[in-house]
Amino acid sequence: MSIQADSTKKECPKCRLPIPRLAVVCPVCRSEIKEKPSRQKKWDRTVSVAKFVKDWIGFPAAAIAAIAALYAPARENILSLLGRDGANLRFEALRPDAISLGQDDTPVSAQKDKIDINISFLRAAFVNDGASTASVMPEFMCSVPDDNQRAFTSRYQLIDINSQKRLLEDVEVPTTGPVFVNVVLKESGLAEDGYGSTATLGTCEFRFSDKYGSKLLTLHLDKSGILQTDHSSGAVTTSDIATSILELDGAEDNRVAPRNRFCAGMLRGIRMDSEPIDCITGTHVIAIEPVYLWERGLQRALRQVAEFRRLAPDAAARSPGLILTDCTEENCVISKTEMELALASFSPSVTVWMCDEWVKSLGNCVRTDFTVNSK
Predict the structure, then answer these.
(1) What is the DSSP secondary-structure string of 165-222?
(2) Angle between the 59-82 and 38-56 helix axes, to the nearest 10 degrees?
(3) H or E, element range at 337
(4) Cβ atoms of residues 174 and 128 within 8 Å
(5) The domain containing residue 322 runs over which residues?
(6) Which residue of 67, 90, 180, 309 could cross-link 127, Cys pair, CB 3.0 to 4.6 Å?
(7) Which residues are bridge partners to 272 per DSSP?
(8) 350: which residues sit within 8 A by CB, 6+ positions away?
(9) pLDDT tens digits for range 347-374
(10) 157 contacts 163 by C-beta, under 8 angstroms
């Protein structure tokens, strides 16, 4: 014999005694009974939860905290179990660029008339698609075979483009976004001459570390020196502008070639104080300038004569000298006339060598000694 619940009865929410199901007033305690539909009950519960979140936590913070609390540990645990929670580094060559010292790093009002040093560099980026931060060494190297199949290696370094100084600390590459860097050529030469080599010719090697220790990122080069995708390491290096890293030159000092051309057998590029002296002989401190900048050259020669006398007081006195180049028909005649008129009564004495564009040595230039009595 089974006892079945009476479907015609319900419990009074106040006195808990059985009453008729359809009753709206309890016949025992006389309290009103207002039955809410199930939809209304769900809505009330939702409203109460929303009020709690709004009053005590704030909905966005609560939602983010809940998602992070559930998702982040699970993701990290899964990646750790799979051995995939380290760094996954990529290097992207973006575009070549150059900076001219005395112009790009100088206010417009103080820029020079002639650029002496150009630094070519490569704008690039490190991207970390992994789960932990990568620390990248600020130097790397690339090796390719030369015409005789010998290993030719180029060593590169990362620099601070504002100061033109190389980075000393490792570059931290987080997982939150790319880190942009500037690459310059440090040196290059054959491996047999002490420049080293990558494990495989036609590759570039970057050393970095993550939570698992030191690692090596290897990128392949095509015949033109353009970085390619390395499928073994997952390093995607292609970009919208294909860039050959092998075409990157070092810092170019435009003053070196004229010194070698005109100052054979002399001291060249000796820095006394403010800037290097182009040439020093037993009788002259010489500045090399284009003929249209002869005034700038004279100013520099006079300043460097004074510096030489101050820093080497026991040495024989030197006179200022000018080697004026780029003497074409148009600018040479006008500039030469202006210079001769100005230096005719100038003191101290100045020696000027006028050099046509085709001459290969100082001996082929026209020398003029300007003294107070040389009218």
Answers:
(1) EEP-SPEEE-SSS-EEEEEEEEEEEEGGGTT---SSTTEEEEEEEETTEEEEEEEEE-
(2) 90
(3) helix 329-343
(4) yes
(5) 255-370
(6) 90
(7) none
(8) 298, 301, 319, 320, 321, 322, 343, 369, 370
(9) 889 999 988 878 888 988 989 999 865 4
(10) no
